[in-house]
Amino acid sequence: MQTLEQLKCGVLEGCSSLKLSEGLTSFPIEIFTLSDTLEYLDLSSNNLSELPKDFGRLKKLKVFFCSNNEFVTYPQVLADCPKLDIIGFKANRIIDIPTNAISANLRWLILTNNQVSAIPASIGECYRLEKLMLAGNRLTALPDELQNCKALALLRLSANEIEIIPEWLFTLPKLSWLAFAGNPCSRNSTAEIEAPVIAYDSLQIKDRLGEGASGTIYRASRAGILQDVAVKVFKGDVTSDGYPEDEMSSSLQAGEHDTLVKILGKTDNIVESKTGLVMELIPKHYINLGNPPSLKSCTRDVFEPNVQYSAKQIINILISISSVANHLHERGIMHGDLYAHNMLIDDEGNTLFGDFGAATMYDRTKLSNVYALEQIEVSAFGYLVDDLLSLYAANHNDEFSMALGSIKDACLSTETHSRPNFEEIELQLAEIKLAV
């Protein structure tokens, strides 16, 4: 992170990336000295509430983050930056989005955790839009014009006030990752869930294992039990995926499956008023299959360089994921984040799948098109197949890769209703495995 003093002194002349977080209450005009080179600007975690009228002078700006500030109105001047394609205004106080404020060039828009009640119809002009993050607002409906955004692949609608999911959403050809928990149109089955309650004071918290948007995972020991466990303590705030309590409900409702991390119970952190899940500890030899999308890849996972997998590893991974996805949808759960970065594998391709932060529970008996949500998730599976084929260690024109290529193409069909379901995919993969 740079400083305002460095900027004023000219030390940052010619830089393409700038990040300032110093409690700023007004936009530093010195930023315009970088207008010929600046491509990435992050002014998050300040006290800004407006941008200058000539903000469009930043003609080369591609990425602008302004989260955790004090904006009430989405700045219309953002539309004056011709190359700006990633914008993030998470956790402001935005109520209003002017009609012409959303640039048609946008590829990724983050408005998580604001007070937006309506998205302007002009969003339908964003033909490049791939990723739209709207969780934690006051939306009651989506503009019909959004159906014109044929490139839209990831949509977060959780923690709003949406009564009905429009039918056209199910026909978007690229939509693969959808979350809408915490709305009237989703199913809340907290009352149906029974899980052992493990007293928080019976756990001895040890080292931190990891942290995500919704919570922190710790290693812990339990009194009288030799084997350590993992404890996920939820932060209690609205995340980019929705409410932590919806994640807990979906995790518990998912039940048991060989590919799911086994949940031992839930706990209450009385001291900090936080809830948590107690899970089996994942063996150390499991590693992440992929890494989350980058700013460049937007909706697609990225992988470590030179990583390759055998046919046996790939088929084991895919059978595991198709099986658990079928298991979840039979229970009326859409995972919403079917990505390699949420999967852990061992050397044989044995797979564990987790992170229900974007999961949505839905009522299969009331949905007009009962398979529509599953077919959206099938598209995400198609991208997983595509990723693994790109990492295949052998001949990409052999029978194995061609067979998987056919499954990938079927999963990614732009005719969404023609995609196979996960039960059919699992059967096809089982046949392929016989030849591996």
The share of residues in helices is 10-25%
Give me the CATH fold name of the largest domain: Leucine-rich repeat, LRR (right-handed beta-alpha superhelix)
The description of the largest β-sheet is: 8 strands, parallel
Number of domains: 3
Strands side by side in the biggest sheet: 1-2-3-4-5-6-7-8
In CATH, the homologous superfamily of the largest domain goes by the name Ribonuclease Inhibitor
Q: Distance N terminus to C terminus?
A: 50 Å
**CATH first level of the largest domain: which class?**
Alpha Beta
Overall mean confidence score, pLDDT: 92
Percent of sequence in beta strands: 15-25%
List SSEs in N-to-C order.
HEEEEEEEEEEEHEEEHEEEEHHH
Number of strands: 18
CATH architecture of the largest domain: Alpha-Beta Horseshoe
Q: What is Rg? A: 23 Å
Kindly name the structural category. alpha/beta
SS summary, helix count: 6
Q: Spans of 5+ residues with little confidence (pLDDT < 50)?
A: none
Q: In one word, what is the shape?
A: globular
